[in-house]
Design brief:
By secondary structure, this protein is mostly beta strands. Its main location: membrane.
Length: 711
């Protein structure tokens, strides 16, 4: 009986992962969304998870891809609790409930938490994704870096049982405000099939952006910009079924997205309301250095699954390797005139090697079904941030981690769900002796380099989680949970700004994040409602403080408290019209100084609405609305300026449209319009960040047109 249950769950998850929602009715799609994978590292019903979860299905991904190919734009529109889209290649400031999320592909971490460059969201093309699972709130189930939760990209799988199946799409994206130089082109294709026990899936995408223009027709600033970006993604997944219980799966992902431009920036000042924008300039004034962006990041994963390795127990063994090289923009602040440097450009390099063993045992008692999930994780993460010219900004950090964990779930009388778990993790972080980098904003404003004695820092943490959910009445299904996360993320930022000569004196303590959450789900005949309120605390949060002598933003460790609430309404108005609306509010303070946290962590209130209309089977249209509210918590300094990430945020609205028409089983045409009413605005991060170059306006009206062919 339990073997049958495990097999059915595995088949259900496979169906959810590969389903093409274009041809699936609402009820079927809703049923599939009751399966999640990342919450406790095994497949389970969403109804059995006492936490807030957002599932983005394939239809939602495809609809948004017609408007904007950037994943952070999609996530911002659909996920309550996630900060608004930055409109750039960087997700700096796009926190999840005020803290950093851990981005994963099929459960394999993609973020670089030891030196968080906030580029983890851009690791995979949306065309390779079957669905996205977002688990909100601090968790340690996957280890370091998930203080805000988890964003897990679940990739597609082979679904053909006979001859090969596939698709190819062609599209162009261009500014409707000023066409000149804005037209780009995108091609994406996929093929999958099965030969006896062997299955295969291959996806590929290539995109060249033209220049991106704001509502006034000016080219957006280049810092983390997307103008003239060339993006490539090649993903493959191969599987072999030894028998009905045992499967071996190999996957490979290559992702590159770099800005290759001959433009130059004209920097503005957000304190004066001036935008940064780009123009054509002589070669000497063009964007300097290497092209910015991910430079051929690679992931390799090998996974073996045995549905019943022994009585009532499923085993999953996986090993992975990752090579990341993210290139950042050329910055004049990385200057050192006395050694001949007038600026610099940094690279975050990260190499990970990991292995994991996960076991899932089901036990049936008289009126209780118990699940025990346990295993061991091992990880080696070597991360650094050198400059292209050879100078060392962040020294190499060599982390060795070993962790064991146990998660339990108890379902009593089919209605009461109890979950509890523990994770014990030991981390050794080795850093050799190094010298901090001398940085000069001007000839008279320089930091003082220090020789810092390296060492091996040991971290040992035991974290716990417990939750309860009651499902007796679908009209009111309440839950409550407490979870902890152990976080040593962004140690590199602390090391590069060291003001002492011994690494042991730098405040590199791990931060234990305590997350409390209560909420409920309500399901009526045509209406689904979700609500959650949360509070998280940490003893060693990190904020930035500007040093006026050196011109460097230095990290400050202090206790933090973050709180907020979220709501979602999913309403099927009639057979052809469906509305999904969300609202999220988050706030936070440095509890030691009793001051509000800046916009690097805390985002303004966000309201979204997505209205889908399908008058006939062949035609579907979606109208989406994003409202970002005010947040004005800080005062000007004695010079009359806002500093750091403390600029005031004024509200703004953005409306998008997408539509598609299915001519027959093979051919489809589609159109998308971003910023339909050409709203002229600064995104939330651009308003709040007073750092040079971030004050870039939002994208003006931009259109996408394309066709898709399936075979």
């Amino acid at each position: 009986m339990l073997k049958t249950t495990l097999s059915m769950v595995a088949l259900a998850v496979s169906a959810a992962a590969i389903a093409d929602d274009t041809n699936v009715k609402d009820l079927q799609a809703a049923d599939m969304e009751h399966i999640v994978v990342s919450g406790s590292r095994v497949f389970e019903s969403i109804d059995e998870v006492p936490a807030s979860i957002t599932i983005i299905n394939q239809k939602q991904i495809e609809d948004h891809l017609k408007v904007n190919p950037e994943l952070q734009s999609l996530l911002s529109q659909i996920v309550p609790g996630l900060a608004p889209d930055t409109g750039s290649s960087s997700n700096t400031g796009q926190s999840l409930r005020g803290r950093a999320p851990l981005v994963m592909i099929d459960g394999v971490p993609q973020s670089t938490p030891l030196r968080n460059g906030s580029l983890g969201v851009k690791t995979l093309d949306p065309s390779a994704i079957a669905r996205i699972e977002v688990i909100k709130g601090a968790t340690s189930i996957y280890g370091n870096g998930a203080s805000g939760g988890i964003i897990n990209y679940i990739t597609k799988q082979a679904k053909s049982d006979g001859k090969p199946e596939g698709e190819i799409s062609l599209s162009s994206r261009f500014s409707a405000v000023k066409l000149a130089e804005s037209a780009g082109a995108r091609i994406a294709g996929a093929i999958n099939g099965r030969v006896d026990q062997f299955s295969y899936l291959v996806t590929a995408s290539y995109e060249e952006n033209g220049v991106q223009r704001d509502a006034e027709g000016d080219i957006l600033g280049l810092q983390y910009g997307l103008s003239d970006t060339v993006t490539e993604n090649y993903f493959t997944k191969l599987g072999y079924d030894f028998d009905e219980d045992k499967q071996l799966q190999f996957s490979y992902n290559f992702y590159s997205s770099q800005q290759k431009t001959d433009l130059g920036d004209v920097f503005g000042n957000i304190n004066l309301g001036e935008k940064s924008y780009a123009i054509h300039v002589p070669p000497a004034q063009q964007k300097q250095g290497k092209p910015q962006g991910p430079e051929g990041n690679e992931n390799i994963t090998l996974k073996y699954t045995d549905i019943e390795v022994f009585a009532n127990t499923q085993m999953t063994l996986d090993a992975y390797m990752q090579d990341i090289e993210n290139v950042f923009f050329f910055s004049p602040s990385l200057a050192n005139p006395d050694e001949g440097y007038t600026g610099g450009q940094s690279i975050i390099r990260s190499e990970k090697k990991g292995a994991r063993a996960t076991f899932n045992t089901l036990v049936d008692f008289d009126n209780v079904q118990a699940t025990f999930i346990y295993g061991i994780d091992a990880l080696n993460d070597v991360t650094s941030q050198p400059l292209v010219d050879g100078r060392i900004w962040v020294p190499e950090m060599d982390m060795e981690s070993i962790a064991g964990y146990l998660q339990t779930k108890w379902i009593v009388a089919d209605d009461l769900v109890l979950k509890a778990g523990v994770r014990q993790e030991s981390i050794d972080l080795a850093v050799a002796d190094y010298q901090t980098l001398k940085l000069c904003r001007s000839a008279d404003q320089c930091s003082v380099p220090l020789n810092v004695k390296g060492d091996t820092i040991d971290y040992d943490a035991t974290t716990y989680n417990v939750g309860i959910k009651y499902n007796a009445n679908e009209k009111f299904s309440p839950f409550a949970s407490y979870s902890q996360g152990s976080d040593i993320s962004d140690i590199g930022r602390l090391l590069r700004s060291a003001t002492v000569e011994d690494i042991g004196q730098i405040q590199t303590e791990a931060s234990i994040v305590d997350n409390y959450e209560i909420g409920f789900n309500s399901q009526f005949e045509t209406l689904r409602f979700e609500f959650a309120a949360y509070r998280s605390t940490s003893e060693f949060g990190t904020t930035n403080k500007f040093n006026e002598v050196t011109g460097v933003y230095e990290p400050v460790r202090a206790p933090q408290k973050i709180w907020g609430y979220e709501a979602l309404v999913d309403y099927k108005i009639n057979d052809t019209l469906k509305l999904i609306a969300t609202y999220s509010y988050v706030e936070g303070k440095d509890t030691e100084a009793d001051t509000y946290l800046g916009s690097r962590q805390i985002s303004p209130p966000k309201l979204t609405a997505n209205l889908n209309w399908q008058p006939v089977d062949a035609l579907s249209m979606t109208l989406s609305w994003l409202h970002v509210g005010d947040r004005k918590r800080f005062e000007r300094d004695d010079k009359g300026n806002y500093v750091g990430d403390q600029g005031p945020i004024d509200s703004y609205n953005v409306v998008n449209f997408s539509g598609q028409y299915q001519f027959d089983q093979s051919w489809q045409a589609f159109v998308g319009i971003e910023n339909l009413f050409n709203s002229d605005y600064f995104p939330a991060r651009a308003q709040a960040y007073t750092y040079g170059g971030y004050n870039i306006k939002g994208l003006g009206t931009t259109a996408t047109v394309g066709v898709k062919y399936r075979f």
